Each structure stands twice: as C-alpha cells, then as structure tokens.
Amino acid sequence: MPNEYIALYTNKDRTSPWSHRIEIALSEAGVQPAIGLIDLKDRPEWFTTIVNPLTKQIPAIAYGGPTVPADQPSSKSVKLAESGVLLEFLADIYPEAKLLPTDPVQRAKARFFIEKANSTFIRSWLMFHKGEGSKEDVFIGLKTMQNLLPEKGFAVGEWSIADAAVAPLFGWAQVALREGLGSYEEGAGPEMYREIFEGERFGRWVEYWRENEARESWKNTWDEARLLRAYNR
Length: 233
Known about the structure:
By secondary structure, the chain is an alpha+beta fold. It is built from 10 helices and 4 strands. Strand 1, helix 1 (17-28) and strand 2 form a beta-alpha-beta unit. The radius of gyration is 18 Å and the shape is globular.
C-alpha cells in the first residue's frame, strides 16, 4: 500500500454519512488519516480556497505531499472531493485492501449497487427524514436494494465499497427511526423501525445489515452516541 499522507475533511461533529463512507473504506485499508473538522456553518477560508474551492462541501481529502496538520493543507498535496469519487480513488490506491472486486463484472455490479442505492433508498430516506416523502417510498427503496443482494454475503458477495456506500445511510436511518428523530409524524419512526426489523418483509436486508455491523471497519468508525448528541443540540 502507498505510504502517502492522507487527510480526510468531515463535519465538526463527525456525523456526516457521506464522510463516514470514506472512514469505513480507509479503515478497511488499514489507513489512519489526519482528520480535518469543518464547521459547515462557518467554513474556514483555508478549506474553501485550498481544499475544496469548487463545491466547498465535505467529504474531501488531501493526498500526498508533506505530512502537515489537516488545517494547514499543503499546496503539494492533491485535493479531491465527492464521496463516490473518493471511494473509487481509495480502491485504486489501496488495491491490496480489495475495496473493489478484481473481476470487471463484479466491479460493475458494485457500482450499479451504489447507483441504485443513491437513487432509491437513500433519496427516499432523505426526503422522508425531512418530512417531504412517504414511508412506502422508503420501503420501495429498501425492497429494491434487498432484491439486488445475493443469497448470502455482501452487495456483490465479498465486501466492497458498495457496502461502504450504503452502511452509513442505513445506520443513520436505523437510529433516527428507532428514536423518532426526524420531521415526520410522531410515532412514525418507531413504527417503521419495527416493520423493517421485526417483520419478514426485509429479512434478507436485515441479515445483510447485521453482517455490516459486525465488521471491524464499522465498529471502528461508528459512534451512535455522537450522532444522538448532534440531534440533541
């Protein structure tokens, strides 16, 4: 694996599911990045002018160049952004970590899984959480993703960045629904939680989710208490 400096920029609470995607992939690769915490309500000038001047969003990374504090990014490092792009980049620079399958067909299936997750479950969950979508749309998205799963294992059998792309969003949804956190009707969240986890409709998805939860990369990067504190601020 390359022994290059890498810094990850995330929100100051470290609750962004998009940044969490990258933390999981880095953990799978055995890489401990420098962490830059960004106040999204008051982004520092060094971040908006040096790290990600185009979109000014997280996650972003600085790769290569000298080893420096994350809040003092070097002009000699490469700056990259967007979680999907970063997942692919990490798969390329850490091939030994097997973040993507070597078989071209399986690689394509992993990318398709990510695309469908973004356009179905993730989109519908974000809308529902804001009080602008329906429960059934979320369920349709979950059913779509469940139907893409193989009989056993992860998104394409062996673990890949396809799983890193989905796990943070579903992990967040699981907690928010269970605790009733979101802009939906009172009681709707816990009711949905029970329908997902206690019924048979999403049995294969729940099995898949439990396998993700059991991975060391999830345990090393997930902090439910931190997420709940952010909701309570």
